[in-house]
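Entry 14. Structure prediction run on the chain below.
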Amino acid sequence: MGEIGIRVEKNVPCSLADGTILRSDVYRPDDEKRYPVLMIRLPYDKETPRYYDEYLEVPRMVHAGYVVILQDARGRFASEGEFYPFMHERRDGYETVEWAAKLPYSNGKVGLFGMSYHGYTQLAAAVERPPSLKAIAPVMTGADLMGNFLGSEEEPHPSAKLETWVLGSMLEDQLKREGDFDEEKFQYYVENMAERLSDAPADEWKPIKDLDPDSYYFDFMKGRLSKAFKDHVNLKEKLSEVDIPALFIGGWFDGLLGPTLEAYQTYKGTKMLWIGPWTHEEMTGRCGERFFNHAASNLGVDNIADPTEIHIKWFDKWLKEKPMPFEKPVHLYLMGQDRWEAFEEWPIQNAVMSREVYLHSQGMSQSRNGDGKLTYQPVSAETKSALKLDPNHPVPTRGGGTLIAGHASGMFDMSDIQDREDVLVYTSMELEEGLPLLGSIKASIWASSPSELLDISLRLSEVDSLGRAYNIVDSFHRKKVENENQPVCLEVEIGSTAYTLKKGHRLRLDVAASNAPLYDINLNNGTTTKTHTEGKSAVEYLYQGGDKASKLILPIAR
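Output returned:
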C-alpha cells in the first residue's frame, strides 16, 4: 500500500436490535476504497495501548489493506448496556459482524481476532454463523471459559482466577458506570490483591463483597447460574458444527492452553494451530526464569516475522483469496531444541510413542531427599507414602500458567518446594540421552483420602546438573471418594508440552495435596476454602508398586 496514511474514527456507534449502542474505534486506510474488516470485541477498554500495538500491531494490519475495528463489548467503557460475563457475546457478535460488513468502507468480508475473553467473543459469534464472517483467530482462549474459571462440579475450584479477573480487570469500570466508585478503597484492595487471594471463604471474598456486594462474582461462586445460562455460554459442543476457518494460537505456559487445545480439537472448520513458548502475559519468549529463542520473531519453519504477520497471512487467505504460505496446519515450538516444527495434526500420532514410567518408593518419598524414584520397570511389592495436607500451611502456587495476581507464569526452580515434607518427590536416574516429550502427559495415580475429597497436585520438572528443578507441566485434581482411606485410581492428564530434557539431566515428578492460592484448599472434612474456613491437618496416601502401581504415561517423539 506504500506510504498511505491511517484514518481514525473514534466511538463509531453500532446500534443493536434491542436498542443498545456499542461503540468502536475504527482504523482504516486514508482513501475512499473498500477493504475487508478485522474486528476485536473486548471488555478491557479499546483505548488501551496493549490492543493497538502490543499483542498485535494495528497500523501494520491497516497498511496490509484492512479496516481494523476495536469495539467495547456491551456494558463496558464507551458501550451501552449491562455487562454480564459471556451472556450476550453470541448475539452481539452476530449483529456487530453484520454491522461491520455494511460500513461504507467495508467490502463485506469480516474477520475476528483477539485473545482470552476476546478470543471467546470470536467463538461465540462463530457459533451463530453470521454470513459475513469469513475467518477468526482465537488466541489463548476456550469455548467454556466459565468452566475454566470455576471448575466443574466436584473439581478443584480455581477461585483465585475469578478473584483476580473481577477485581483486577472488570470492577473499576463497572463501579464508575454505576457512580459508586471509591477510588481510595478500590486501590487499597487492588494493591493488596495478591495477599488476599488466600482469604476464605472465597464465596464471601471481602474485597468484592465490600466494593460490589451484588456482583455477578457471587452468582458464579455460589452456583446461582441457571442451566439455560450454562448451556448458552458453553460453546464446546457447538464448535463441532462451525465451518468458519479458524487460526488457534496457544502458549506452552498459558493458563488457557488446555481449553485452547480442546477448542481446536473440537472445531469442525478448516483450522490451524500455533503453540509457542509464551505465557498469557507476553509472547516474547520469556517464561519466568527461562528464555526461549525464536519465540518473538522468525516464527515457525517458514520464518514468519511475528504474530502480527501470522494473522495477516491467515486473513489474506480467507478475506483476500491469497495463497496460504503454510504447508502444514500445526506449528509447535520445541522447547529444549530452540526450534519450530510443523505437523499434520494435533494430537500428534505417528511421530510419537507412549512410554510408561513408574513411581517407586519404600514409603519414604517425602521431599527430594526421600527415596522416591521414577523407573521404567514396575515393582512387584506394593508400598504407600504418606502425603500430609495442613490447610494452614498449603503448598504454594508457583509458575506454570497461573493467571492470578502476584504470580508470574512460566518456568521456575521448584527445588525449595520439593524440600517440603508435605511434597512427595520421584526422580529418575540421569538421562543417557535427550528425552523429547511431545504431546499430552498422562498419569495413573493410586491414592486414598481420610475424607470424602481426594486432592492431588502433579508437577513434572527437569532437574539440571546443579540440582535445580524447572517445571514443565502441572495440574491439580479432585475426586469425591465413596470410601474413606480406601485406594482409588485417578486417570488424569497433567498437561501438554513439546519439551526435550537434556542428556545428563533427570526427570522429576512431585506430588502434593494443595496448590494455593490458585485452587481452593481441601479442609479434610468434606469442605474446602471455597465455602468454609475451619479445617484440620490430615494425611492422604499415595500407592506404588504391585496392583496399585502409580505411573506416568509419557509421549515421546520418535
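The CA atoms of residues 34 and 105 lie 4 Å apart.
Filed with the rest of this week's runs.
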